[in-house]
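Quick one:
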Amino acid sequence: MESIPLVSVVITSMDSSPQEQAVTTQASSHTPVWYRILVVDSGRDLFKYKSFFLLIFVLALIDKLLKKYVKLDRSSLPTIQEMSIQSADYVFTGLPADVLALISDYRTFLVLAALFMFKETISLWPSSDMRRMHRNERGRFGIFASLTAIRWQQVGWDIIAVGATCGVFMLWAVSGFVMWRGGWQILASPWWLVLFAMQVGLALPLVMAGFSFSSKLAVISRGAFSAKLALFFKLFTSARLAVLSWIFFTGRIVLESIFVVGLPALILFSVDHLILRLVLATMIATPSYCYLKMASFKFFLMVYRPYQLVHNEYRHYYQRLYET
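Output:
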Protein backbone atom coordinates (compact mmCIF):
# COMPACT_ATOMS: atom_id res chain seq x y z
CA MET A 1 0.00 0.00 0.00
CA GLU A 2 1.28 3.46 -0.87
CA SER A 3 1.91 5.68 2.13
CA ILE A 4 0.17 9.04 2.44
CA PRO A 5 2.47 11.98 3.25
CA LEU A 6 2.18 13.13 6.86
CA VAL A 7 1.51 16.79 6.01
CA SER A 8 -1.29 15.76 3.64
CA VAL A 9 -2.93 13.85 6.52
CA VAL A 10 -2.56 16.81 8.90
CA ILE A 11 -3.99 19.27 6.38
CA THR A 12 -7.09 17.24 5.62
CA SER A 13 -7.93 15.80 9.02
CA MET A 14 -7.70 18.38 11.79
CA ASP A 15 -10.83 20.42 11.16
CA SER A 16 -12.10 19.90 7.59
CA SER A 17 -15.77 19.12 7.16
CA PRO A 18 -16.89 16.09 5.09
CA GLN A 19 -17.75 18.42 2.20
CA GLU A 20 -14.27 19.95 2.34
CA GLN A 21 -12.55 16.58 2.56
CA ALA A 22 -14.42 15.41 -0.53
CA VAL A 23 -12.28 17.60 -2.75
CA THR A 24 -9.00 16.31 -1.23
CA THR A 25 -7.22 13.63 -3.25
CA GLN A 26 -4.22 11.50 -2.38
CA ALA A 27 -0.85 12.50 -3.82
CA SER A 28 0.44 9.92 -6.26
CA SER A 29 4.10 10.85 -5.92
CA HIS A 30 6.39 9.27 -3.35
CA THR A 31 7.90 12.73 -2.73
CA PRO A 32 6.26 14.45 0.29
CA VAL A 33 3.66 16.95 -0.87
CA TRP A 34 5.01 19.80 1.27
CA TYR A 35 8.49 19.32 -0.24
CA ARG A 36 7.19 19.31 -3.82
CA ILE A 37 5.14 22.46 -3.22
CA LEU A 38 7.40 24.59 -1.03
CA VAL A 39 10.79 23.60 -2.45
CA VAL A 40 10.61 22.06 -5.92
CA ASP A 41 7.65 23.94 -7.42
CA SER A 42 8.52 27.25 -5.75
CA GLY A 43 12.10 27.16 -6.98
CA ARG A 44 11.10 26.14 -10.52
CA ASP A 45 8.34 28.73 -10.89
CA LEU A 46 10.62 31.44 -9.54
CA PHE A 47 12.51 31.49 -12.83
CA LYS A 48 9.27 31.86 -14.79
CA TYR A 49 8.10 34.76 -12.64
CA LYS A 50 9.63 38.22 -12.85
CA SER A 51 7.23 40.58 -11.09
CA PHE A 52 9.20 40.73 -7.85
CA PHE A 53 12.37 41.91 -9.51
CA LEU A 54 10.98 45.40 -9.01
CA LEU A 55 12.59 44.94 -5.61
CA ILE A 56 15.81 46.18 -7.23
CA PHE A 57 14.20 49.61 -7.58
CA VAL A 58 13.06 49.48 -3.95
CA LEU A 59 16.60 48.66 -2.79
CA ALA A 60 17.99 51.60 -4.75
CA LEU A 61 15.41 53.89 -3.12
CA ILE A 62 16.18 52.57 0.37
CA ASP A 63 19.89 53.06 -0.26
CA LYS A 64 19.27 56.68 -1.24
CA LEU A 65 17.17 57.34 1.87
CA LEU A 66 19.64 55.64 4.24
CA LYS A 67 22.61 57.58 2.93
CA LYS A 68 20.72 60.88 3.12
CA TYR A 69 18.86 60.67 6.42
CA VAL A 70 20.47 57.98 8.63
CA LYS A 71 23.67 58.93 10.44
CA LEU A 72 25.08 56.67 13.16
CA ASP A 73 27.34 58.08 15.88
CA ARG A 74 28.54 54.98 17.73
CA SER A 75 30.42 57.05 20.34
CA SER A 76 27.18 58.51 21.71
CA LEU A 77 25.20 55.28 21.93
CA PRO A 78 23.98 54.43 25.46
CA THR A 79 24.68 51.09 27.12
CA ILE A 80 22.27 48.18 26.72
CA GLN A 81 21.12 48.52 30.35
CA GLU A 82 20.41 52.22 29.92
CA MET A 83 18.55 51.59 26.69
CA SER A 84 16.46 48.83 28.30
CA ILE A 85 15.37 50.97 31.24
CA GLN A 86 14.65 54.01 29.08
CA SER A 87 12.72 51.94 26.54
CA ALA A 88 10.59 50.24 29.19
CA ASP A 89 9.85 53.55 30.89
CA TYR A 90 8.77 55.10 27.60
CA VAL A 91 6.61 52.15 26.48
CA PHE A 92 4.71 51.82 29.76
CA THR A 93 4.40 55.51 30.66
CA GLY A 94 4.87 57.71 27.60
CA LEU A 95 3.64 55.56 24.71
CA PRO A 96 -0.12 55.64 25.52
CA ALA A 97 -0.20 59.45 25.31
CA ASP A 98 1.73 59.42 22.05
CA VAL A 99 -0.64 56.83 20.57
CA LEU A 100 -3.66 58.96 21.49
CA ALA A 101 -1.99 61.97 19.88
CA LEU A 102 -1.38 60.01 16.70
CA ILE A 103 -4.96 58.78 16.54
CA SER A 104 -6.24 62.35 16.78
CA ASP A 105 -3.96 63.55 13.95
CA TYR A 106 -5.45 63.23 10.44
CA ARG A 107 -1.97 62.77 8.98
CA THR A 108 -1.78 59.39 10.68
CA PHE A 109 -4.62 58.12 8.51
CA LEU A 110 -2.94 59.51 5.41
CA VAL A 111 0.18 57.55 6.30
CA LEU A 112 -1.91 54.41 6.92
CA ALA A 113 -3.59 54.87 3.54
CA ALA A 114 -0.18 55.20 1.87
CA LEU A 115 1.05 52.05 3.63
CA PHE A 116 -2.04 50.15 2.50
CA MET A 117 -1.46 51.20 -1.11
CA PHE A 118 2.14 50.06 -0.75
CA LYS A 119 0.86 46.75 0.56
CA GLU A 120 -1.41 46.42 -2.46
CA THR A 121 1.55 47.08 -4.75
CA ILE A 122 3.78 44.41 -3.21
CA SER A 123 1.04 41.92 -2.31
CA LEU A 124 -2.28 42.23 -4.18
CA TRP A 125 -0.71 42.96 -7.57
CA PRO A 126 1.78 40.04 -7.37
CA SER A 127 -1.02 37.79 -6.05
CA SER A 128 -3.11 38.67 -9.11
CA ASP A 129 -0.13 37.81 -11.30
CA MET A 130 0.50 34.49 -9.54
CA ARG A 131 -3.19 33.61 -9.74
CA ARG A 132 -3.06 34.04 -13.52
CA MET A 133 0.16 32.05 -13.70
CA HIS A 134 -1.27 29.10 -11.73
CA ARG A 135 -4.38 29.17 -13.95
CA ASN A 136 -2.29 29.30 -17.17
CA GLU A 137 -3.74 32.73 -18.00
CA ARG A 138 -0.50 34.69 -17.85
CA GLY A 139 0.56 36.12 -21.21
CA ARG A 140 3.76 37.71 -22.41
CA PHE A 141 3.16 40.92 -20.45
CA GLY A 142 1.55 39.19 -17.50
CA ILE A 143 2.55 41.66 -14.84
CA PHE A 144 0.68 44.53 -16.51
CA ALA A 145 -2.33 42.42 -17.44
CA SER A 146 -2.52 41.29 -13.81
CA LEU A 147 -2.73 44.91 -12.68
CA THR A 148 -5.63 45.66 -15.00
CA ALA A 149 -7.36 42.47 -13.85
CA ILE A 150 -7.69 43.80 -10.29
CA ARG A 151 -11.17 45.15 -9.47
CA TRP A 152 -12.12 47.77 -6.90
CA GLN A 153 -14.31 45.19 -5.15
CA GLN A 154 -11.19 43.10 -4.55
CA VAL A 155 -9.36 46.10 -3.09
CA GLY A 156 -12.36 46.81 -0.84
CA TRP A 157 -12.42 43.21 0.34
CA ASP A 158 -8.70 43.39 1.07
CA ILE A 159 -9.23 46.53 3.16
CA ILE A 160 -11.73 44.68 5.36
CA ALA A 161 -9.49 41.61 5.69
CA VAL A 162 -6.42 43.71 6.56
CA GLY A 163 -8.48 45.77 9.01
CA ALA A 164 -9.74 42.59 10.68
CA THR A 165 -6.19 41.29 11.01
CA CYS A 166 -5.04 44.56 12.58
CA GLY A 167 -8.04 44.53 14.91
CA VAL A 168 -7.29 41.02 16.19
CA PHE A 169 -3.63 41.94 16.64
CA MET A 170 -4.49 45.15 18.53
CA LEU A 171 -6.75 43.25 20.95
CA TRP A 172 -3.91 40.81 21.62
CA ALA A 173 -1.33 43.59 22.04
CA VAL A 174 -3.50 45.82 24.25
CA SER A 175 -4.39 42.94 26.56
CA GLY A 176 -0.69 42.18 26.98
CA PHE A 177 0.15 45.84 27.48
CA VAL A 178 -2.37 46.21 30.31
CA MET A 179 -1.08 43.06 32.01
CA TRP A 180 2.67 43.82 31.76
CA ARG A 181 2.19 47.51 32.55
CA GLY A 182 0.63 46.45 35.83
CA GLY A 183 3.81 44.52 36.59
CA TRP A 184 5.92 47.59 35.70
CA GLN A 185 3.96 49.73 38.14
CA ILE A 186 4.68 47.23 40.91
CA LEU A 187 8.35 46.73 40.07
CA ALA A 188 10.09 48.92 37.47
CA SER A 189 12.13 46.30 35.64
CA PRO A 190 12.96 46.13 31.91
CA TRP A 191 11.99 42.45 31.96
CA TRP A 192 8.34 43.51 31.76
CA LEU A 193 9.12 45.04 28.37
CA VAL A 194 10.84 41.83 27.30
CA LEU A 195 7.73 39.81 28.22
CA PHE A 196 5.50 42.28 26.40
CA ALA A 197 7.72 42.13 23.31
CA MET A 198 7.63 38.31 23.40
CA GLN A 199 3.84 38.32 23.54
CA VAL A 200 3.62 40.71 20.60
CA GLY A 201 6.23 38.72 18.70
CA LEU A 202 4.26 35.50 19.10
CA ALA A 203 1.41 37.06 17.11
CA LEU A 204 3.51 38.49 14.27
CA PRO A 205 3.57 35.26 12.15
CA LEU A 206 -0.24 35.15 12.15
CA VAL A 207 -0.39 38.87 11.30
CA MET A 208 1.92 38.25 8.36
CA ALA A 209 -0.22 35.28 7.36
CA GLY A 210 -3.32 37.46 7.50
CA PHE A 211 -1.76 40.10 5.24
CA SER A 212 -0.59 37.37 2.85
CA PHE A 213 -3.82 35.36 2.70
CA SER A 214 -5.98 38.48 2.35
CA SER A 215 -4.44 39.30 -1.04
CA LYS A 216 -4.60 35.71 -2.26
CA LEU A 217 -8.26 35.33 -1.33
CA ALA A 218 -9.10 38.80 -2.68
CA VAL A 219 -8.03 37.95 -6.23
CA ILE A 220 -10.15 34.78 -6.41
CA SER A 221 -12.78 35.37 -9.08
CA ARG A 222 -15.37 32.99 -7.66
CA GLY A 223 -17.32 33.22 -4.42
CA ALA A 224 -19.40 35.84 -2.67
CA PHE A 225 -17.91 38.60 -0.56
CA SER A 226 -19.03 36.93 2.66
CA ALA A 227 -17.88 33.48 1.56
CA LYS A 228 -14.32 34.66 1.04
CA LEU A 229 -14.43 36.50 4.36
CA ALA A 230 -15.53 33.31 6.13
CA LEU A 231 -12.58 31.49 4.56
CA PHE A 232 -10.22 34.24 5.67
CA PHE A 233 -11.33 33.99 9.32
CA LYS A 234 -10.43 30.29 9.24
CA LEU A 235 -6.92 31.58 9.97
CA PHE A 236 -8.08 32.55 13.47
CA THR A 237 -10.71 29.87 14.09
CA SER A 238 -9.10 26.75 12.58
CA ALA A 239 -6.43 25.09 14.73
CA ARG A 240 -4.95 23.36 11.67
CA LEU A 241 -4.67 26.53 9.62
CA ALA A 242 -3.40 28.65 12.52
CA VAL A 243 -0.68 26.20 13.58
CA LEU A 244 0.63 25.49 10.09
CA SER A 245 0.56 29.19 9.19
CA TRP A 246 2.37 30.16 12.39
CA ILE A 247 5.14 27.64 11.68
CA PHE A 248 5.56 28.63 8.03
CA PHE A 249 5.50 32.40 8.55
CA THR A 250 7.80 32.18 11.58
CA GLY A 251 10.34 30.60 9.25
CA ARG A 252 9.69 33.25 6.63
CA ILE A 253 10.18 36.09 9.14
CA VAL A 254 13.51 34.58 10.24
CA LEU A 255 14.76 34.14 6.67
CA GLU A 256 13.60 37.59 5.56
CA SER A 257 15.18 39.17 8.62
CA ILE A 258 18.53 37.67 7.62
CA PHE A 259 18.59 37.70 3.80
CA VAL A 260 16.17 40.50 2.88
CA VAL A 261 16.76 42.98 5.72
CA GLY A 262 19.87 42.19 7.79
CA LEU A 263 22.58 41.35 5.25
CA PRO A 264 21.45 43.90 2.61
CA ALA A 265 21.28 46.64 5.30
CA LEU A 266 24.78 45.74 6.46
CA ILE A 267 26.02 46.03 2.87
CA LEU A 268 24.21 49.34 2.26
CA PHE A 269 25.78 50.81 5.41
CA SER A 270 29.31 49.40 5.05
CA VAL A 271 30.15 49.40 1.32
CA ASP A 272 31.05 52.80 -0.09
CA HIS A 273 31.03 52.11 -3.83
CA LEU A 274 27.48 52.75 -5.13
CA ILE A 275 27.34 50.16 -7.93
CA LEU A 276 29.04 47.44 -5.88
CA ARG A 277 26.75 48.21 -2.92
CA LEU A 278 23.57 47.87 -4.97
CA VAL A 279 24.75 44.77 -6.84
CA LEU A 280 25.69 42.91 -3.67
CA ALA A 281 22.49 43.89 -1.83
CA THR A 282 20.39 42.95 -4.87
CA MET A 283 22.08 39.57 -5.32
CA ILE A 284 21.19 38.66 -1.72
CA ALA A 285 17.78 40.27 -1.22
CA THR A 286 16.05 39.81 -4.57
CA PRO A 287 16.21 36.01 -5.05
CA SER A 288 15.50 35.45 -1.34
CA TYR A 289 12.44 37.70 -1.34
CA CYS A 290 11.17 36.32 -4.66
CA TYR A 291 11.50 32.74 -3.49
CA LEU A 292 9.74 33.41 -0.17
CA LYS A 293 6.86 35.19 -1.92
CA MET A 294 6.46 32.32 -4.36
CA ALA A 295 6.65 29.76 -1.53
CA SER A 296 3.99 31.75 0.37
CA PHE A 297 1.60 31.44 -2.56
CA LYS A 298 2.30 27.73 -2.83
CA PHE A 299 1.76 27.39 0.91
CA PHE A 300 -1.60 29.17 0.60
CA LEU A 301 -2.63 26.71 -2.11
CA MET A 302 -1.52 23.82 0.08
CA VAL A 303 -3.34 24.74 3.30
CA TYR A 304 -6.51 26.04 1.58
CA ARG A 305 -6.79 23.05 -0.73
CA PRO A 306 -9.55 21.34 1.33
CA TYR A 307 -11.89 24.33 0.82
CA GLN A 308 -14.16 24.17 -2.21
CA LEU A 309 -13.85 27.83 -3.23
CA VAL A 310 -10.05 27.73 -3.51
CA HIS A 311 -10.02 24.22 -4.97
CA ASN A 312 -12.36 25.23 -7.79
CA GLU A 313 -10.31 28.35 -8.58
CA TYR A 314 -7.09 26.33 -8.99
CA ARG A 315 -8.54 23.00 -10.05
CA HIS A 316 -6.13 22.44 -12.94
CA TYR A 317 -3.11 23.27 -10.79
CA TYR A 318 -4.17 20.72 -8.17
CA GLN A 319 -4.77 18.13 -10.87
CA ARG A 320 -1.27 18.60 -12.26
CA LEU A 321 0.28 18.55 -8.79
CA TYR A 322 -1.54 15.58 -7.26
CA GLU A 323 -2.22 13.39 -10.28
CA THR A 324 1.29 13.35 -11.81
